[in-house]
């Protein structure tokens, strides 16, 4: 009977991880379904130099959007976290705010991960791909980039929704504060 | 035992070389270390994803001007009482920040459509 010693597992783990890393683009290509006719593939092959220039411009534009949004989200999180601390210090309990802030932070992290590690990564790969020789793979890569961009949009939509909910919860709490107590210590 | 012998042999050899020409030896070590550290830094730059957002490279001059400057870190009061007025002030700043966000690209344009990427049949005839 063959027994597998644990040390073998540790030896093969890096090899398995390396193989996964190498095969990742192949799997991605396989996932993206490309059912292009020969005529369409010829069009892709002929036109793809222009496509890659457009993709390069898009990459520059979206990198700026990603940086600006990232910074703006950070500042918003600093503001909301400080306000949550102030509420806690004053022993004010607004049940929705803390979980909403946590969820917001998690989606901001997700926005960064999806835009940097998936969308921009695949977009840069597409700008450098040998599209004339492999039009089908190039088109599959474009489909992948589209899918990644949709994921970024989904994260932005979720962040917008959570920001609106945070505001709503705070306005609701504000409504419970008696007007006559304005300026008094709320503790 | 064999491994230990090899280590001792290498140690002797290193001592002999460093004893004969200490300055070239030190320079050689420094060069090798600098090379290794540079390789590590460049790997981190690419693997960590910084390269994708690095607009300080040549060719990104126009984009650099579009990046918003990092605001000076604002210190918020976290101990004073919470009143209606305080919440109004908070919401005003909050709304301004949300409004700022609408100025930035939201990745929703149709830049990846076949037409925008010039991948349509009618474009091929041009």
Write structural notes for this entry.
The complex is a heterodimer of chains A (187) and B (126). Chain A contains 4 helices and no strands. Chain A has a domain at 44-173. With 187 residues, chain A is mostly helical. Chain B is mainly α. Chain B has one domain (2-103). In chain B, 63% of the residues lie in helices and 0% in strands. Chain B has helices spanning 2-20, 22-47, 50-53, 61-66, 84-103, 121-124. In chain B, helix 1 crosses helix 2. The termini of chain B are far apart. Classes of the chains: A mainly alpha (187), B mainly alpha (126). Chains A and B meet through helix 2, helix 3 and helix 4 of A and helix 4, helix 5 and helix 6 of B.
Rg of chain A computed from alpha carbons, rounded to a whole number of angstroms = 25 Å
Characterize the largest beta sheet of chain B: strand count, sense, and whether it forms a barrel: none
SSE topology string of chain A: HHHH
Structural class of chain A: mainly alpha
Mean pLDDT of chain A: 84
Query: What's the structural domain tally of chain B?
Result: 1
Total beta-strand segments of chain B: 0
Total DSSP E strands of chain A: 0
* Secondary-structure element series of chain B: HHHHHH
Share of helix among residues of chain A?
A: over 70%
- Report the end-to-end length of chain B measured between terminal Cα atoms: 76 Å
Structural class from helices and strands of chain B? mainly alpha
What oligomeric state is this? heterodimer
- Percentage of residues in strands of chain A: under 5%
Q: How much is the average pLDDT of chain B? A: 87
For the termini of chain A, the CA-CA separation is 71 Å
